Automatic annotation (TrEMBL):
Pfam families: HTH_3. It comes from Jingyaoa shaoxingensis. It comes from the Bacteria. InterPro entries: Cro/C1-type_HTH (IPR001387), Lambda_DNA-bd_dom_sf (IPR010982). The lineage of its organism: Bacteria, Bacillati, Bacillota, Clostridia, Lachnospirales. This is Helix-turn-helix transcriptional regulator.
Length: 74
């Protein structure tokens, strides 16, 4: 997951501070997620997938297809 987090962030030219703010965590904690030092909590994982409009499966390396699933919201 950590390599995909890094790639998603750098492809969009975002700083760790900027994405951490969007995910409601500190830059230091986000850095630890990105380096693979700690596991990302489910709530942050879901928020990251929403932010990048990708599936959580892609972040978890369960698929190489980044497309988000269709929303069930009406």
């Amino acid at each position: 997951m950590n390599t995909r987090l890094l790639a998603l962030r750098t492809d969009r030219k975002l700083s760790q501070t900027a994405i951490a703010h969007c995910l409601n965590c500190s830059q230091r904690m986000y850095s630890r997620y990105e380096r693979g030092e700690v596991d990302m909590p489910l709530s942050i994982l879901v928020e990251a997938a929403r932010y990048y409009n990708i599936s959580t499966d892609y972040l978890l390396n369960l698929t190489d297809i980044p497309n988000a699933y269709p929303s069930n919201e009406r």
